[in-house]
Amino acid sequence: VVCVVGGQSISDQGVKLRHGCEIVIATPGRLLDCLQSSYAVLNQCNYVVLDEADRMIDMGFEPQVQGILDSMPSTNLKPEDETIALEADKVYRTTYMFSATMPPAVERMAKQYLRQPVVVTIGRAGKAGSNVTQHIRFVKENAKPRCLQEELQEMVGDAEKQCIVFVNTKNACTVVSRQVERLGHYSCVLHGGKAQDQREIAIRDFKTKRCNILVATDVAGRGIDVADVSKVINYDVPDNIEAYTHRIGRTGRAGKSGHAVSFITYSDEKIFPDLVHFLREAKQRVPQELARHESVRGIRGNGLITG
């Protein structure tokens, strides 16, 4: 198994690829660089897994993904016409695509590179899991530190509980991490400004419970699977419902129940309409301040409105 990602020496990765391997785990940009530098060829690649397909497209990696898929021989794709008999002694490419949401770009890619795919849906695409309780707290910006202390109080003295605190900027990661440490917790920080080895250390420390609170930007919104994350706190709310969905999806995993708390201020009104719709669809409580805000007028649903 060879891991091919940015932030590390491409020549070292190229040496490993040229020695041969059975499985390559890669980010799109770095793998395409390796292909263009002739460190690897994919002529014998028979299995392709596209994980977090929607996120890769959101981050602008659609051209790189297409470049990688186009570098594989089209002769090992099954024919689009289902009536054509398959060759018995030929190994056809199998492609798996995992995506939490299905925007048009993902559907377009699926139609182009998959052949008569079987669609397996777990839950509902783009929706919160039924075992995650969502709690919205309308607060003032300067009240967030006190609210954070209140939400973390239940974790005092319980080393088994873990929590992810999401913020929107790298600087906020540092500030909030210091707040967490002053409250007596062990925290680790994860954001896009960290080198790859620093990110790996932070994730390892969190998974092994050397720290019980991870303070992170949306870098941690996907791909981190830690079963004991009992709570997610949106210290800063994202400006789009897709990021919100992925953040709260870090809790309530492996059949366990989870709790997602979001600190909302009036400056977050961009997300208000989608958030109200999301909460109501999930049968979650909607605070009066949110439900009655002018930006969400006309939105109907079955969510509970509370004071």
From TrEMBL:
Signal peptide: none annotated. Transmembrane segments: none annotated. GO terms for molecular function: ATP binding; hydrolase activity; nucleic acid binding; RNA helicase activity. Residues 1-120 form the Helicase ATP-binding domain. Residues 151-294 form the Helicase C-terminal domain. It is an enzyme of class 3 (hydrolase). The keyword ATP-binding applies. Its EC number is 3.6.4.13. Keywords: ATP-binding, Helicase, Hydrolase, Nucleotide-binding. It comes from the Eukaryota. Gene3D superfamilies: P-loop containing nucleotide triphosphate hydrolases. Belongs to the DEAD box helicase family. This is RNA helicase. It comes from Chloropicon laureae.
